[in-house]
Amino acid sequence: MSNAIPQSTENGNGLQSRGPLKVAIIGGGLVGSLAALSLARRGHEVHLYEYREDIRTAELVQGRSINLALSQRGRKALAEVGLEQEVLATAIPMRGRMLHDIKGNRTVVLYDPCTNQCLYSVGRKYLNEVLLNAGEKFPNIQRHFEHKLHYVNLTQGRMEFKRAPNKEIVEANADLVIGCDGAFSTMRQQMVKTPGVNYSQEYIEHGYLELCIPAKNGEFQMPENYLHIWPRDAFMMIALPNQDKSFTVTLSMPFKVFDTIRTTEELLNFFHKYYADAVPLIGEERLVKDFFKMPPQHLVSVKCHPYHYGAKALILGDAAHAMVPYYGQGLNAGMEDCTFLMSLFDQPNLTTAEILEQFTELRWRDAHAICDLAMYNYVEMRDLTKRISFRCRKWLDTQLFRWYPSVWVPLYNSVSFTSMPYSKCIANRKWQDKLLSNVFISATVALVAIGVSTYFGVFKISYF
Ligand SMILES: Cc1cc2nc3c(=O)[nH]c(=O)nc-3n(C[C@H](O)[C@H](O)[C@H](O)COP(=O)(O)OP(=O)(O)OC[C@H]3O[C@@H](n4cnc5c(N)ncnc54)[C@H](O)[C@@H]3O)c2cc1C
Ligand SMILES: *[C@@H]1O[C@H](CO)[C@@H](O)[C@H](O)[C@H]1NC(C)=O
């Protein structure tokens, strides 16, 4: 449509002012479909290439996690494309964690007793559909489903796809190729082969598997406005509410524990021992069926730098920074990438090359920071939560937040309920730690906190 418009023109100052670009987006998941929408709104010619078929017409979506916790950063990015209210209208607010101990006792810990912020449980498929549907309004977005990228020339912006069902090769080219193709990104694989790109990936010992607590008589079987957590040291189970009054349950534990559960009997014994209160909710028959349906999935953490290559290639979302899911920020961080990228596109004097360069520079510290935080939470969940000093610190945090809500924002809250750069959230926490040890109140308060925390027994939380 805009083929006739030159890609870039020189203006009087010798600065490049950008015309509409032909942009290829690889991956029509949550970040890809958001990026497509954002660029189309700015008049660019967008081609969205997705490996799978159109999820809006597909019968079953095999995605990672059926629902997700949406928080401030994701909401802000959705607001920028005018979709926040539409998404929140069907999302289910989760005001706090509801902890299930091994005896089945439940304890509520609000996320934010001071200003009442909450997380929102949204369906992955629904969110993806909202984003794709919004794109239908733009004639300058073309969607190409069942196109799997298998090669890209990063310098020329030339791509090759395998098109289902015959895997015939389809070629295309673009002024800018943006890889939003997830944690196992083909685009990233091609980028990290080039010299000068730092890259690390880490598979953790834990895998995860999804189960379901169905609705009963058309009602939720547990209070719906909470993120339910069954903390069990090395294992962890959580449940998020769905629109259809079911809960999606995610069981996360070391592969070597999964390996010990091979028979129906072993499974039921395990569940009756650790998650007894959940068994009647899930139902034994359904538990057995769902547990053995699919092997547990791996979790990977990926960091790289830079996120761009030359003037034509960029990666966003999980492709750039996949993280373990223990902070509930993967999607939020990916959507925030779009916010950052668009703020650069909105600076008329930047060339495409400068936009990409500045994106990497603006983003990498914070992306690395949230990957680290997510990993830290994973470790914390297993070890730190047992330490008394850690529990005291958590208690103290909540008290200080209650007393000085504008000065003392705990780490979890700054990550989930503000847009403070992730690296600053960590710096803020370090400042708080330093203050506490300097003032030396921790020692005094610790004595009190030990008593309180053993009494309430609620400080074993860290997941979400
Ligand atoms: C168990 C679990 C729970 C999670 N919970 C949360 C949460 O509560 N909150 C949160 O913020 N985040 C959460 N996350 C993280 C979140 O799922 C991801 O960060 C998010 O999905 C990233 O979106 P994306 O679009 O970058 O990648 P993806 O969602 O992976 O989408 C990538 C898309 O690219 C397509 N694709 C892949 N390869 C190709 C190719 N070669 N050619 C063309 N297309 C291709 C795929 O089909 C897919 O549609 C969770 C993750 C897991 C695993
Ligand atoms: C790669 O990592 C090294 C060591 O941390 C660092 O000195 C270097 O600047 C990094 N290079 C890039 C391109 O990120």
TrEMBL record:
A Pfam family (short name) is FAD_binding_3
Chief place where the protein resides: mitochondrion
Tell me where in or outside the cell this protein is found. Answer: Mitochondrion; Membrane
Q: Which cofactor does it need?
A: FAD
Give the membrane topology. Answer: Multi-pass membrane protein
Catalytic activity line of the entry: L-kynurenine + NADPH + O2 + H(+) = 3-hydroxy-L-kynurenine + NADP(+) + H2O
Q: Which InterPro entries match?
A: FAD-bd (IPR002938), FAD/NAD-bd_sf (IPR036188), Kynurenine_monooxygenase (IPR027545)
Check the record and name the SUPFAM superfamilies matching this protein: FAD/NAD(P)-binding domain
* Record-listed E.C. numbers: 1.14.13.9
Locate the transmembrane regions by residue number.
Answer: 439-458
Per the record, the pathway is: Cofactor biosynthesis; NAD(+) biosynthesis; quinolinate from L-kynurenine: step 1/3
Keywords, A to Z, come to: FAD, Flavoprotein, Membrane, Mitochondrion, Monooxygenase, NADP, Oxidoreductase, Pyridine nucleotide biosynthesis, Transmembrane, Transmembrane helix
- The FAD-binding domain sits at 22-344
Q: What does this protein do?
A: Catalyzes the hydroxylation of L-kynurenine (L-Kyn) to form 3-hydroxy-L-kynurenine (L-3OHKyn). Required for synthesis of quinolinic acid.
Family, according to the entry, reads as follows: Belongs to the aromatic-ring hydroxylase family. KMO subfamily.
Q: Return the PANTHER family for the record.
A: KYNURENINE 3-MONOOXYGENASE
**The protein's name:** Kynurenine 3-monooxygenase
Q: Name the source organism.
A: Bactrocera dorsalis
